[in-house]
Amino acid sequence: MAALVGTSGALFVCGASAQSVGDGKLDDLQSLVAKYSTPNAASPGQNRSAAGQEAPVAVRANVRTDAAASTASTASSAPVTRSPAPKTQALRRDHQEIRSASVATPATHAAERADKRKTPPVAEVATTKPSEQPPSKLPQAQVAAAPSAMSGAAQSAHFAAADAADRKRSYKTMAPPARSSSAAATPDHETTAAPLPINRTNLETRQTLWQRAQTELAAGRRLPALAACEQLLAQWPNDVPARRMQWQILSDLGATARAWQLAQGMSSPPDAATSRTLQADLATHEIRWATATPADPRQPYVSVDRAVADINKVIAEADKNQPALAVRARTDRLMVDDQLDHGATAVNTYRQLLADNHPLPSYAKAAAADALLQQRHPFEAATLYEQSIHDLPGPYASGETDPRTGLMYAYLESGRNTKAIALADKTADSLSAFKPRHGIALPVRNQAKLQADLNTVLVREYSGLLPDAQSRLQPLLQQAPMNAQLWREFGTLQRARGWPRAAERSQIIALGIDPNDLSTKLGVLDDWRQLHDYSLVQPTLTKIETVLPRSPEVQRERESWDRERGWQFDIEHDRGRGSTPNLGDSDHQTQATLASPLLDDHWRVEGLINQTSANLPEGPIERDRAGLGLLGYMRDLQFYAHVLGAAGGRAKDTALEAGATWAPSDHWVFAGDWNKHGDTDLPIRASYYGITAEAVHASVQWRASELTEAGFGVNSVHFSDNNSSKGWQSHVMQRLFTVPQMTIDGGLEAGSSHNSNVDVPYYSPGHVRWAAVDLRLQNLLFQRYEQTWRQRIDIQAGTYDERGFGSSWMASAGYGQSIEPRAGLAFGWKLGWSSQPYDGKRDSRVTLDLTMHWGE
After folding, report:
1. pLDDT at residue 622 is higher than 60
2. Residue 767: phi, psi to the nearest 5?
3. Strand runs (DSSP E) across 536-618, as ranges?
4. What does the buried/exposed string (b/e) look like for 13-51 if buried means 16 or more CB atoms within 10 Å of the residue's CB?
5. Rounded Cα–Cα distance for residues 36 and 250 (Å)
6. Spatial contact of 613 and 583, defined as CB atoms under 8 Å apart
7. What is the structure's pLDDT at 267?
């Protein structure tokens, strides 16, 4: 067992010897870094860095991307970050969600410096400056030489002279002597405690420890070298070469705060160039600490802003004297900006470095790719991710971002879903569920494997393969029921399948495990919005914004919520040509609705216009209405009331309309509508003869998931000419086929209607029955974040039986597309054809439907 002693505490590394410790796994290195790297501004436990706990699992939003989340085994949870979800409407937080603390450490830079020198870094560590040379009778040139180059006799003289100086001063006073104006006369080994009596044993011990430290460092084993330095300094605390080696090793290991403290505390501090290098290392680690869970969750940006200011100061000073350090600091700031979701700044830095002929080092390519993904350049990001994986193929250490996760999201965002699925599956298959842990007999859960398995779920969810995604996620939940991230993603999946209440319960469970997870809180808001529980959305979102106003994830949620609660505009124009009895040779209908912003979280005021015209055999006719309406929202309930006055043509009286939709669960929906003098159920040919109607509709729908649904409805219409029409209709739809970006549904439809009077001027069959088979294909042609382009094909074929005229076939077909050029704006069109018999005579009709929506 070797005791490593420092001012920030004592760390005991258990093992057979310092040599075995030096050859240990990364966890030992992280433990040592955690011991020395705790910033003075925060007490232990306030800031959680990746070195002080189980490594976080990286999930991309996004980029996703963003907020602290939780991963855990069956007994506990560990913090994670989340990635953007790019492919479903409920998961458009592009990513934010997938970056862990991947800022380059000074250890990374030290390794690169050593690689460039192609020699062990011992000479740099051990070389002393003239002002720090120990008093010695040896020649000046020999004393100033690197200790590694001294002969055994020279090293003995070196330590003997230092011991003699210490002993001489100790007899005069226990306090440090006054400093002389002459650097040569100023002793560097100032004694603050009584030294050990000089003898041959002590001299050999000092020489042995120093030689051991040099040997271990030359072999690249920093931990044993540090252990030897600590033991030497425990007896000779002012040995300058040992102290210099100590803080340089600590800096290379990432313990930059302690290294800086030790370096500045020396009687002859490092030169300006070395100090700037230490400051750059310290600023990099300040960013790592700042991007972990903040000491005060109510002020998450204080530490971040201070760290960014420090690294900017380093860049400004290094630009003048150390261009290479300035480039390295800019690279680190690029990684910092990526961590802080400042994607635009990071991309600008990346492009400027390339323009200045400074290619990115391998360790920074994944961060630059992630920034490109944030800024929605998925093809360029994918190329850079592939280069990063080629340069650093892994395996990746605990707490290190796996670039294959980012590459998976880049494939998704660029429309290469099949490639993304193959990559996720290959990554998950290459990892084992458990891994050995140094110093522990039993293996521990491999968090990278858990993340990789979760990625296979997410990539299928974003590709529309929801049942497959759920079948993969549920076993993970059974293995780790206290994992907040798994519950959060389960809630997101449930929302995508049309179960907002179940999603809300899952998200609340996740919040119970990790109350501070941002993505889970925003997921609950999405559930409330789907349930029309608007009264909770605004105050909750305001509280989140108070703490995290800069979060891109929060900003996107605010934009989406503002669109939903703001003005809404819809317009639909239908035009048809044919020979149907009720519509004539040609007809058209235009409906426009403008809804006010949400009032008091429950109400909207609507303005409505309805224009209808047809070219009947009796002559042309128009029927226009305009009026106002009121929309109401409560949890699980939506209702409306309209008052539409006659605005022109053959419209008569004032139309009154009202209706409600109630969804008591995720599977059942009940709806009812009523109108008097309305036009919804009144043929325009009946209006030509001055006939009005009063109608009632009721329906119930059962929906298992996006795969299966069934519905049944009844209607009753009473005309002013004493004719009454009653009927029913039902349907069943089942998902038949699913591949990424395409689905095929099939179903059955049947219905019947009865009219009490057939001797009327409009089509009014005594009794009809129909049954048909439906087929529907939906395909996503293109998607880049909120921009989408879809197509849909509908085919129906069946039989139509009318009393007194027998039965015959009926059919219809339609092809349409919908385009969303940006969030909150959608256009659609559909071209249709239909044919069926009316009173024994076949009529065909061609239609064109155009739609536009603005809002959310």
Report:
1. yes
2. -160, 130
3. 568-580, 584-595, 603-616
4. bebeebbbbbebeebbbbebbbbbbbbeeeeeebbbbbb
5. 8
6. no
7. 75
**328-333 LR contacts (CB < 8 Å, sep 24+):** 328/109, 328/280, 329/280, 329/283, 331/104, 331/360, 331/361, 331/364, 332/103, 332/104, 332/280, 332/283, 332/284, 332/287, 333/308
Q: Would you state the pLDDT for residue 293?
A: 66
Contact 521, 544 (CB under 8 A): yes
Share of the chain above pLDDT 90, in %: 47
Q: Average pLDDT for residues 76-97, to the nearest whole number? A: 37
Which token pair is 306? 């201070």
Phi, psi for residue 655 in degrees, rounded to 5: -85, 135
Express each pLDDT in 384-398 by its tens digit: 999 999 999 888 877
Q: Comparing 397 with 210, which gets the higher pLDDT?
A: 210
DSSP string, 169-205: HHHH-SSPPPPPS-TTTS-SS--SSPPPPP-HHHHHH
Taking the C-alpha atoms of residue 92 and residue 420, their distance in angstroms, rounded to an integer, is 17
Of 336, 335, 399, the residue nearest 369 (C-alpha): 335
Beta-sheet pairing, 77-81 with 787-802? unpaired
Is the predicted pLDDT of residue 132 greater than 60, yes or no?
no
Q: What is the pLDDT of residues 26-85, one digit of tens each?
A: 343 333 334 333 333 333 333 333 333 333 333 333 333 333 333 333 333 333 333 333
The average confidence (pLDDT) of the chain is: 78
Express each pLDDT in 248-261 by its tens digit.
Answer: 898 888 788 888 88
Q: What is the pLDDT of residues 451-462, one digit of tens each?
A: 999 999 999 999
Q: Which residues, 6 or more positions from 575, have their beta carbon under 8 angstroms from its beta carbon?
A: 586, 587, 588, 847, 848, 849
Alpha carbon of 700 to those of 703, 713, 753, 800: distances in Å? Answer: 10, 6, 18, 24
CA atoms of 156 and 146, how far apart (whole Å): 14
| Strand 57-58 with 77-81, pairing | parallel
What is the side-by-side strand order in the sheet with 57-58? 57-58, 77-81, 68-72
Only one residue has tokens 């939940």, namely 477
Q: What is the 3-state secondary structure (H, E, C) of 107-140?
A: HHHHHHHHHHHCCCCHHHHHCCCHHHCCCCCCCH
Q: Cα 850 from chain centroid?
A: 36
Report d(CA 714, CA 752) in Å as an integer. 10
User: What is the average per-residue pLDDT within 742-762?
Assistant: 94
Q: Strand (E) positions, 370-467?
A: 434-437, 440-445
Q: How many CB atoms lie within 10 A of CB 786?
A: 18
pLDDT score of 811: 96
Q: What is the pTM of this model?
A: 0.72
How confident is the model at residue 631, as a pLDDT? 97
Alpha-carbon gap, residue 51 to 717, rounded angstroms: 72
Contact 641, 628 (CB under 8 A): no
Q: How is residue 530 written in tokens?
A: 């789907």
Specify whether the backbone of 285 is left (phi greater than 0), alpha (psi in -120 to 50) or beta.
alpha
Q: Are 781 and 767 in contact (CB under 8 A)?
A: no
Average pLDDT over residues 460-476: 95
Contact 507, 487 (CB under 8 A): yes
Buried b (16+ CB within 10 A) or exposed e, 77-113: bbbbbbbbbbbbebbbbbbbbbbbbbbbbbbbbbeeb
CB-based burial label for 591 (10 Å; 0-12, 13-18, 19+): middle
DSSP line for 325-364: HHHHHHHHHHHHHHHTT-HHHHHHHHHHHHHTT-PPPHHH
